[in-house]
Write a structure and sequence with these properties.
With 342 residues, this protein is an alpha/beta fold. It has a single domain, classed as Aldolase class I (TIM Barrel). It is built from 13 helices and 8 strands. It has an 8-stranded parallel beta sheet with strand order 7-6-5-4-3-2-1-8. Helix 6 links the parallel strand 2 and strand 3. Helix 2 packs across helix 11, helix 3 crosses helix 12 and helix 11 packs parallel to helix 12. The radius of gyration is 19 Å and the shape is globular. It binds glyceraldehyde-3-phosphate (G3H). The site of glyceraldehyde-3-phosphate has 12 residues, from strand 8.
Length: 342
C-alpha cells in the first residue's frame, strides 16, 4: 500500500495551482470506483439490535485463547495508524511519534517475545498536512507509510476546490495515504450524487496516494445512512472506508463497524474489489484491538488482518498493547506512563 522510497523520489515536489499529482498506470487490484448506483444500497435494511447483539458476542464467547493473545496483540501493532491530530502538534512531537512507529515495542519486551528479528513497525503514522514533511523525513528508509488527514479535517466545511488543493499539496509533500472527510450534509439530505461527485474528485486529487474515506459515523444519525455512505464512498473509488475522525461525540463502535464491513463485503461481491477498513477514534485498550481483529477475521477472513486491508486509527492504544505484552513476558504490569505512545 505504501509508496517505496524510490517512488517518493520521483513524486512531484510542488503541485502548482490546479495541478494534479502525476498518475502512473492504474495499480493492479486497486478499486477504480464506478458510476453511482443507488440500487446497490437503497432499500437495504439494517437491523440495529441484530448488529448490537452480534457485536456483544465479540470478546466474550469467542475471545482469543490466552496463549494466543500475545500473537494477536503483536499483529495489532502492525495494523495501527499511529496518530497525532492535535492543535499543539510540533515537529518534535511528530518525530517522537515516528521513532515509536519505527520501534513500537521496547527491546526487552521484543526479546522476551522472541520477535526481536521481526522488524516490527506500526502500519503507518497519521498526522496533519503541515506535519507531513517531518514525518517523511523521520520515517525515511523505514518502509512505514505517512498518512495525512486532509479536506478541512475534521468537519470538512470548506469549499471543494480548496479541499482538493489541500489533498494535492499534501501528496506533494510526500504523503502516501490521505484520510479525507466527507460532507455529512450530503448524507443527511441523502444527496448521493453530490456525495459521489465530491469523493470521486478527492480520489482523483489523491493520484497514487491511497484514499481513506472518513464517514464520521457518529454524525450520520442512522445505520442505514452508514451503509449507504459506505457504498457511495466505495463506488467513488475509496481504498479504505474509515469510521471516524476521533473528534465526533461517538467514534468507532463495533455495531457501526459491522454495518460498514457488511457494505464492504457486498461491494466486493458485486465488483471483485477488496476495500480496506479503518475503525478510528476512542480506542485505547488492548482488548479492543482483539475484538476488532476477531470481527474482521470472522466477517471477512485473514486478508483483513493485514495492513493493506485493515488499520486501527489510534493515538493511545499502543501504550496499553505494549503494557499487556510486557505482562505476558514478565507476569507484571509496568506503570502506564512507561508505555505512553508519544
Ligand atoms: O484517525 C485517528 C483518530 O483521530 C485517533 O483518535 P484517538 O485520538 O481517539 O485515538
Amino acid at each position: 500500500m505504501s509508496h517505496t522510497k524510490d517512488d517518493r523520489a520521483t513524486a512531484p515536489v510542488q503541485a502548482g495551482p490546479g495541478a494534479l499529482p502525476a498518475t502512473r498506470e492504474p495499480e493492479p487490484g486497486r478499486n477504480p470506483g464506478m458510476p453511482l448506483d443507488t440500487a446497490m444500497f437503497e432499500g437495504h435494511a439494517v437491523n440495529r439490535s441484530a448488529a448490537e447483539r452480534r457485536a456483544a458476542t465479540l470478546g466474550t464467547r469467542r475471545s482469543v485463547k490466552k496463549q494466543h493473545q500475545a500473537a494477536w496483540l503483536v499483529n495489532a501493532v502492525r495494523l495501527i495508524d499511529l496518530t497525532t491530530l492535535s492543535g499543539d502538534d510540533t515537529e518534535g512531537k511528530v518525530r517522537r511519534l515516528c521513532a515509536k512507529a519505527r520501534s513500537p515495542i521496547a527491546p526487552r519486551i521484543a526479546e522476551g517475545l522472541d520477535i526481536a528479528d521481526m522488524d516490527l513497525t506500526t502500519g503507518a503514522v497519521c498526522v496533519y498536512p503541515t506535519m507531513v514533511p517531518h514525518a517523511v523525513d523521520a520515517l525515511e528508509g523505514s518502509g512505514v507509510p505517512v498518512a495525512s488527514v486532509a479536506t478541512g479535517f475534521p468537519a470538512g466545511l470548506m469549499p471543494l476546490d480548496l479541499r482538493l488543493k489541500e489533498i494535492e499539496w499534501t501528496v506533494a509533500q510526500g504523503a502516501d495515504e490521505i484520510d479525507i472527510v466527507i460532507t455529512r450534509e450530503h448524507v443527511l439530505k441523502q444527496d448521493w450524487a453530490a456525495l459521489h461527485d465530491e469523493i470521486s474528485q478527492m480520489r482523483a486529487a489523491c493520484g497514487d496516494a491511497h484514499m481513506k474515506a472518513i464517514l464520521a459515523t457518529g454524525d450520520l444519525q442512522t445505520l442505514r445512512n452508514v451503509y449507504s455512505a459506505s457504498m457511495v464512498a466505495m463506488q467513488a473509488g475509496a481504498d479504505f472506508i474509515k469510521t471516524s475522525t476521533g473528534k465526533e461525540g461517538v467514534n468507532a463502535t463495533l455495531p457501526v463497524s459491522l454495518v460498514m464491513i457488511r457494505a464492504l463485503r457486498d461491494y466486493g461481491d458485486a465488483t471483485g474489489y477488496r476495500i480496506g477498513f479503518k475503525p478510528a477514534g476512542g480506542m485505547k485498550q488492548a482488548k479492543e484491538a482483539l475484538a476488532w481483529q476477531i470481527l474482521m477475521k470472522e466477517e471477512l477472513g485473514r486478508p483483513w488482518l493485514e495492513p493493506d486491508l485493515f488499520r486501527f486509527g489510534a493515538s493511545s492504544m499502543l501504550g496499553d498493547i505494549e503494557r499487556q505484552l510486557e505482562h505476558h513476558v514478565t507476569g507484571r504490569y509496568a506503570a502506564s506512563h512507561r508505555h505512553a505512545a508519544s
